[in-house]
Amino acid sequence: MNRALPVRLRWAPSSALALTPGTRLGPYEIISALGAGGMGEVWKARDTRVDRIVAIKHLKAEHTDRFRREARAIAALNHPRICQLYDVGPDYLVMEYVEGQPLKGPVPAADAQRLALQIADALAAAHHKGIVHRDLKPATILVNDSGAKLLDFGLAQIDAPSLSGDATVSVALSERGAIVGTLAYMSPEQAQGQSVDARTDVFAFGAVLYELLSGRRAFAGGTPLATLSAVMHETPPLEAPAALKRIVIRCLAKQPRDRFVSMVDVGTALEQAEVKTANRDPSIAVLPFANMSRDPEDEYFSDGLAEEIINLLAHIPGLKVTARTSSFAFPGSSTTFRRGQLRVAVCSRGRPRGTRGNSSEREAKTLASLNHPRRGPLWKTPAGRIGVVCCACE
Length: 394
Description:
This protein is an alpha+beta fold. It has helices at about 65-75, 110-130, 190, 200-215, 225-235, 240-250, 265-270, 295-315, 325, 340, 360-365; strands at about 25, 30-35, 40-45, 50-60, 85-90, 90-95, 100, 130, 140-145, 145-150, 155-160, 285, 320, 345-350, 370, 375-380, 390-394.
């Protein structure tokens, strides 16, 4: 996983530079336009220092406050499902370039569940840092082969109040009574200009999941006023698997107290939701093994074992094995791993066991079996090579 370098936020007057392909913005060479709106433009560019493709968000001078909000919000976050911030200029942000398309439904229920888990995980990470997105919608989520990526924290509320009541609000980014966000995805309290917390993102998440499952907006109207009325008073019908429908309905509750308390709870509900899927080829991901010893050399041994297992499983006909670069993005000690993020039916993780010998002796002992907690053995190598215990998790 790429990690952004620490960013020092320095504010300077706008450069008022008109960007075109070939323009140089400091060390960044502009390649092509990615999009434009009332608040500014987004450009594809190349960082000539490290030959890296980036996205540059060039904002208009009148949106300085939004510019600072977004920089501070993203700089506080480091999550694989949130677009990273690389650099800050006087009137531009240099961000991770993400290829993909805005989120769009309808998609099969299993795919909606997988993407929803990824989005929920990203929002939970932001909320843990006291950041409420406040503008979650399909246009702020890009989807590609690796999954979903959350973008655009320009309306984020930083240091949002904790539901436990023990957090102090130190940054006021909007006045009470001001309406910010996108009407069709606003919570009722946000639409009324009331103070908000993480549950306003829970509501928007429900609207996004509704759209993923149905292909239409949860709240729509011919005019802004009609849309606002739908948000405040209507409960949209939904044809979807019962477990996912219950999640959507609870997320879209009009009163914050009736919604999920946090995105962590939403993620748990999504993980537990039973969604029937079409028959697929069996698939597995092998996570990095946990090093249970105090010897740092065993860290390399544990990783090597996982790689060995991946290589051995790859020879089984009809079995799809997730590549090392993808599965190793979730360390063996991670508590945030979710099977849906790797798009596999089975995930395995484990640890070395047995008496430690020298390096060559340890390397001679490779995984002998892969066991499912309920189904029992899934795969076994020739006898006499047992050296690792590994458990597969549905």
